[in-house]
Amino acid sequence: MAQRALPLPAARLGRAVRSAGAPTAVSGVVLLLPDGEPDSHRRPSPLSYAFQPPLARALARAGQDDGLAAHVVRYRCRGWNATDAQPAADAEWAVEEVVRRYGDVPVCLAGHGMGGRAALRAGGHAAVDSVLAMAPWLPEAGADGPDGADGAEPVKHLLGRQVLLVHGTNDARTDPELSFRLAERAKKTNRDTCRFEVHSDGHALRQHRAEVTALAADFVCGSLFGRAYARPVADALAAPPPLGLRMPLAAGFGKSLRG
């Protein structure tokens, strides 16, 4: 007898990650969206979540004085699955859950790979103040077409949000040129868009993880709590294309901030 497929679990939030010295009240939330696959109805792979807990802890430490909480979003399944766009739908559910739990607090969607696409797609939610897309997986078809047409990722809904894309130049899984082209379209609608290139790094952004983490922390705390951005981020946001969309992430970025 053929076995029946198990039903997919509901999307959920992982436990809140907060630093020990944080205020009791939560004043802002970053939702971490893991990587996935273009097509799959299988349950999420534990490997896709491996990058998230260390980043969640680092962001919570960086935002502890402002009351930042970090949650990892647990998807229903690992695939985007064409027009179902399931990770994006799960991200939107997660934002609604944040509003239900914490009330009217600013939210940053921070995704990696397929999670980066989900963050960009769900970034139009009224509670979202900022979007961080790291090595986002983006479709090739229609990448230069009109907003939302012929397979192009929509960008007009990002108006009013702070948007940062980060991509390794040696990424063999997701094409960094496609993230540049999306950032170029987004910049025309929303001037608060910038993009950093991590030279010689791959999809996991492992080679320069310390710098990427420091950049993410600077962006999340600046966009959610009004902190002054580090000079490279401020310059990237202010620079016209293509300069602000091909900003190199300098080695030692995090050390220079601590100094």
Describe, in plain words, how this protein is organized in 3D:
There is one protein chain. The chain is an alpha/beta fold and 259 residues long. 32% of the residues lie in helices and 17% in strands. The protein has helices spanning 52-62, 86-102, 114-122, 176-189, 209-225, 231-238, 253-258, and strands at 12-13, 28-33, 68-74, 107-112, 128-134, 162-168, 193-198, 247-248. It has an eight-stranded mixed sheet, with helices on both faces. Helix 1 (52-62) packs across helix 5 and helix 2 (86-102) crosses helix 3 (114-122).
Throw out a few tags for this protein.
32% helix, alpha/beta, 259 residues, 8 strands
The share of residues in helices is 25-40%
Q: Hey, roughly how much beta strand do the residues contain?
A: 15-25%
Report the biggest beta sheet as strand number plus sense, adding barrel if it closes.
Answer: 8 strands, mixed
> Within the largest sheet, what's the order of strands?
1-3-2-4-5-6-7-8
Gap from first CA to last CA: 65 Å
* Global outline: globular
N-to-C series of helices and strands: EEHEHEHEEHEHHEH
Q: What structural class do the secondary elements suggest?
A: alpha/beta
Total strand segments? 8
The residue ranges in which pLDDT falls below 50 over 5 or more consecutive positions are none
Note the total helix count: 7
Oligomeric state of the chains present here: single chain
